[in-house]
UniProtKB/TrEMBL annotation:
It is found in: Cell membrane. The lineage of its organism: Bacteria, Bacillati, Bacillota, Clostridia, Eubacteriales. InterPro entries: BP-dependent_transpt_permease (IPR050366), MetI-like (IPR000515), MetI-like_sf (IPR035906), OppC_N (IPR025966). Belongs to the binding-protein-dependent transport system permease family. Keywords: Cell membrane, Membrane, Transmembrane, Transmembrane helix, Transport. SUPFAM superfamilies: MetI-like. It is a multi-pass membrane protein. Pfam families: BPD_transp_1 (PF00528), OppC_N (PF12911). It comes from the Bacteria. The chain crosses the membrane at residues 21-40, 82-104, 111-133, 139-158, 197-222, 242-265. This is ABC transporter permease.
Amino acid sequence: MKRLGQTIRDLWKDPMGRIGMIGILLVILVAIFAPLAAPFEPDKMVAMPKSAPSADYWFGTDNYGRDIFSRILYGARVSLEVGIIAVGIGAVAGYILGLLAGYFEGWVDRVIMCVMDILFAFPSILLAIFISAVLGRGLVNTMIAIGIVNIPVFARTVRAAVISAKGLEYVSNARSVGVRTGAILVRHISPNVVAPFTVQATLALSSAILTEASMSFLGLGIQPPDPSWGSMLSEARTFMEQAPWMAIFPALFIIVTILLFNILGDSLRDVLDPKLKT
């Protein structure tokens, strides 16, 4: 907890880190309190279809007369839920595989990294679409698909950190006096993995949100009438000339949210490893 508090203080001292922290906190609060902040139900017709932004409907209405502002607030819940759970799936699996590959090396390393290389050979969005097509549409399958896509990058990150930490003197001393492998991995090697692992998790969140939006845009992610920024963009394609606000506001929220996570990830990298600071 002490180290966490120091990291937060260091992030707050960095102007970009402060922007990232405040921005992400606002997005989280919007997602949590969407039912209280949204003026209308996200799936209810509240006005004439394709009504322009006004004092009553801040972001206008869509082709079904639903309030876009309310749907965007609820869409934030979907994006964060998918991002956090999907990254959690990829992070846990990638951490375990990277730990095993980096520590034991040999055939264990070759087998694990061969599978990771195969997954890496496919563009992430195409791999996510393929997995989602096999599993079927829906929120849970979307999270599983995006989680699988994120496993290789976590496995590689953890493996590199483990190989580096394994050569440290105190790790070699622990092995020489007969400390068990499990204890070495947990007590001596894992702390050296925390910094790059945390940075990668932050950056992976932005990638997961973008992948979810892309899959929903293509009709393979969150299914209507549930609000999703990607599906809102998909519905807006036909009405770009008649009601451009239908596409502008969801796209703006996707861009800003991804930018905030990337800013936070870059600042976190600089704080946890000052040697990488440019």
